């Protein structure tokens, strides 16, 4: 998460909480681009600490902030002295992504993030800075998300992904109702798949490598139009039995592989990755 730490934090903030905040930043859990006033305040605070390297880290953070490289897009989370303890507690926890199938969707997200060069997401999942949690069914997701929301006091680092179960572009399902309930929960983001379900986004090359004995089925999938592929029951197409893992561990997908699903799907996948980055 991109943090906007106010200079007051290093003067008025609880000292232990400030040290924990700096530790999170030094371990690259979150991003920080201080202005000169804040960097100078942080450097003076670092002079009071019996730890090596903190002042050098602050100086490097200021240099990075003033470089001509574009800053990360999106909203910066304000960090104030008054709420510092609660904010640090929120930032110290893993972000939470609620899904319908923890094993398959984590596998997909790792492959997707690597393909789109979102290494921060890959690292966050593997380092348990982002936890993917199984809700136990669509009808349970609103309640499950609401319960997970309670663990955050101020910075709600929580989002959810849900299948749409649509059979065509205009089809509304009960999942639209569940999605509306989740979006009503304060601070929570939701991505409702535009296609039928997560399996509809898997490129044919991944199916070839995870289902090598079902090449005719993969060829049949490849021959379908983009519109057909978006709402196809992929599990039924492949005979019901799906590979484990869903995407083979040796498969290295690229953005071009996902492009076979059309520019709208690629744009949707970018939106999903942006949502995940916002809660990290």
Structural features, described:
With 280 residues, the protein is of the alpha/beta class. It folds into two domains: 80 residues, no CATH class; 185 residues, no CATH class. Helix content is 49%, strand content 10%. It contains 15 helices and seven strands. The strands form two sheets. Strands 5-4-6-7 form a four-stranded parallel beta sheet, with helices on both faces. The chain has a three-stranded parallel beta sheet with strand order 2-1-3, with no helix packed on it. α9 links the parallel β6 and β7. α3 runs antiparallel to α4, α6 runs antiparallel to α7 and α8 runs parallel beside α9. 35% of the residues are buried.
Short recap of the structure:
It contains 15 helices and seven strands. The chain is an alpha/beta fold and 280 residues long. It has two domains: 2-81, no CATH class; 95-279, no CATH class.
């Amino acid at each position: 998460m991109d943090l906007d730490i106010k200079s007051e934090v290093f003067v008025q903030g609880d000292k232990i909480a400030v040290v924990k905040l700096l530790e999170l930043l030094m371990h690259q859990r979150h991003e920080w681009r201080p202005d000169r006033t804040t960097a100078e305040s942080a450097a003076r605070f670092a002079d009071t600490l019996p730890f090596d390297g903190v002042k050098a880290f602050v100086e490097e953070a200021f240099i990075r902030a003033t470089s001509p490289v574009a800053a990360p897009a999106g909203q910066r989370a304000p960090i104030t002295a008054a709420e510092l303890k609660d904010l640090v507690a929120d930032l110290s926890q893993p972000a939470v992504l609620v899904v319908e199938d923890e094993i398959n969707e984590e596998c997909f997200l790792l492959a997707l993030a690597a393909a789109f060069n979102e290494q921060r997401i890959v690292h966050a999942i593997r380092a348990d800075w982002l936890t993917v949690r199984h809700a136990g069914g669509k009808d349970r997701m609103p309640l499950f998300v609401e319960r997970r929301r309670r663990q955050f006091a101020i910075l709600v680092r929580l989002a959810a992904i849900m299948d749409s179960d649509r059979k065509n572009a205009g089809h509304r399902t009960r999942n639209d109702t569940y999605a509306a309930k989740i979006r009503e929960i304060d601070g929570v983001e939701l991505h409702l798949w535009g296609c039928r379900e997560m399996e509809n986004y898997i490129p044919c090359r991944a199916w070839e490598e995870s289902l090598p004995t079902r090449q005719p089925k993969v060829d049949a999938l490849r021959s379908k139009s983009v519109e057909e592929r978006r709402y196809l029951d992929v599990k039924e197409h492949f005979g019901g039995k799906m590979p484990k893992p869903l995407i083979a561990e040796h498969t290295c997908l690229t953005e071009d592989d996902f492009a076979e699903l059309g520019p709208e799907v690629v744009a949707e996948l970018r939106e999903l990755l942006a949502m995940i980055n916002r809660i990290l």
